[in-house]
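REQUEST
  id: r-88c1
  op: predict_structure
  target: sn-glycerol-3-phosphate import ATP-binding protein UgpC
  payload:
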Amino acid sequence: MAKITLSQLRHSYMPAPKGPEDYALKQIDLDWQDGGAYALLGPSGCGKSTLLNIISGLLVPSEGRILFDGRDVTDLPPDQRNIAQVFQFPVIYDTMTVRENLAFPLKNRGVAPAHIEARVAEIAEMLEVTEMLDQRAAGLSPDNKQKISMGRGLVRDDVNVVMFDEPLTVIDPHLKWKLRSKLKELHQRVNATMIYVTHDQTEALTFADQVVVMQLGEVVQIGTPVELFERPAHTFVGHFIGSPGMNVLPCEVRDGGAFFMGRNVPLEGSITQSGTRNEIGIRPEFVTLSESGIPGAVRKVADLGHNAVVEAVAADGTRISAVLHGGDLPAQGETVHMQFAPEQTRFYADGWLASEARGAA
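RESPONSE
  id: r-88c1
  status: 200
  body:
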C-alpha cells in the first residue's frame, strides 16, 4: 500500500490554456495516507474522473506531480503504478467460474498456485461468495457480479491503492446498502488504501474516513463526515451534503454583526472578514419554531414519521427549512417564527466560511 501525494496538480484538456476557466482541475495539493479510506465526492463535471484518471496513469497532468510513498510516478503508465480499479460496470469474464475470475489477476503475475488458492478462498469468504466459487459468472445476479469485480480488485495484496469509480451505479437500490457495508468491512479487514469516487453523498459518507468534496475542478473541503455536516467550509458543501441541505440566507454586515431582513442574527462567534456576497448558513436540524424569531409562511410540510421537514418562505422570498422532532406540525400557509441555534449559525463571505467558533484558537 502507499501514501499518495498530489503536488500542485492542474489539468487542462486544451493545448494552450489561458486562464482558470480553461482547467478541468485547478491547483490541487493532497496527501492520502497509507491505509486510509477516502471518497471523492461531487456533482458530474466537477473533475472527479479526471483526477482518478491522473492517479491511475490514464492521463498525464498538465502541471504538477503524483507521488506514491515519495516516488514520482507522474510519467509512469498504469501497469507500472500497481493499482487496482473497480469500475461502474462489472469487469469479469462470463465464461469463467467465480474462482477463475478471482484467480485471474494473480495467475497473470505468476503467483504460486498455493498462494492463489489461499488468497481466492480468503477474498471469497470476505465477499460471502464461497458457495458460488465453481459457478460460471454468466449466471450471477448483477450485485454478485459486482462483488466478483470488487474481489478481482482486492485479491492482489501488493497494490498501492484500490480505486472504486462509482461501483454501485448498476446495483438495485435495496442491495446498495449491503454492498456499502461490505466495502467498509473489507477496508477494515484488508487495511488497503482505498479511494471511492461518487456523486452520492450517502455512499461517500458511509464508506470514507475522509471525504474530499470537489466543485468546478477545485477541492472545497476535506474532512470527516461529521466535520462536513457540522461545519461546512463552503456553502456548496452545505448545500450538497445533508437532506435537506443547509439554509443559506443573504445578509448585511454592520456593527460587527450579520443582519437578515433588518434583524440581527446571533452567530457562532466573530466575523473574520466580509465579502461582496455575505450569507448566513444554518442546518435545518438546528432551526426550531418558537414565538419569536424570523417570520415566514409555511410553504410545505413533509411528515417523515421519525421527523418532519417544514419549509417556510420569509418576506423577501428566502426559503428556510426546519427539521422538527415531535409536536404539532404547522399547516400550509400558516405563519411561523424560526429560531436559529447561535452556536450552529455560520457566516460566509463569497461562499467561504468566515466566522470563528467561540473558544477557537
